[in-house]
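As a warm-up, study this chain.
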Amino acid sequence: MKGRNTAEKESIRGWLFVTPALVYMATIVGYSIVYNISLSFQNVTMRNINGEKKFVWLSNYINLFKSENMAWALGNTFKFTLISITFQFILGLSLALLFSKKIKGFQALRGFLVVSYLMPNVVTALLFKYMLSPDAGIIDKILMMFGMIDTPVGWLQNTHTALWGPIFANIWAQTPFIMLLLSTGLSNIPQEVNESSALDGANSFQRFFYITLPMLKNSIFAVMMIGFMYTFKVFDLIWTMTGGGPVYATEVLSTYAYKLSFSTFKFSQGAACANILFLCLLFVSIFYRHLIGKEDD
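Now compare it with the structure written out below.
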């Protein structure tokens, strides 16, 4: 009986600690999500924002998917995310493996590399915007110095190359984060396993593919899902560098939702676009939970 009372007290104490966060999530986050969903089923523009709001149900979503701009935004979002995540993972894993070596000075160098992740995205965007500019950009000057190009490319002004500017900036900014997470996973792998396999005759490649990667599986899942969700909803980086242009070359779901809501004042269509972004991330989250659940089983 005494043990039961103690357990009940611990449970009550736990709920007291959790309640403020639950109230905050319900009032700030929960209300915003519900209101945004409700707004997407209405026809709200600048003309009737203070008047009668007519429900149009799925019309906003249907009109969005009929729009060519939405196709550009959706395609660019997935292209930006998949390319960024691929290179971030390759570079992050390579750096994590490199810095796992016990070599003098590597710890200080790893700390120095994290600076790019700590910088605000707006600062990173302005830095790369300057570096990629056709007039004073150092990227074009280096390429011209090695004879790879004859004239400045104008990376952010060319519809064929504009998306690569934010991709390069995002890879540079987020790779240290991937490196840190994978370094933590590598540190949890017992050294005895690698040493035993080396004594059994396994070479470096065999140890990497048959021991390191399988034991890093959970860390890799976490890194890929977190990286995907963070990159998929990126706004400030692209908005600062290109504003979604030129034309729609760098338009993504987040910038398109912003333009619909605050440039053309089609609030309901902007809410619908934001909800599509939310549903994509929700699906990825559910898929991740499914993978983790199978792994636990």
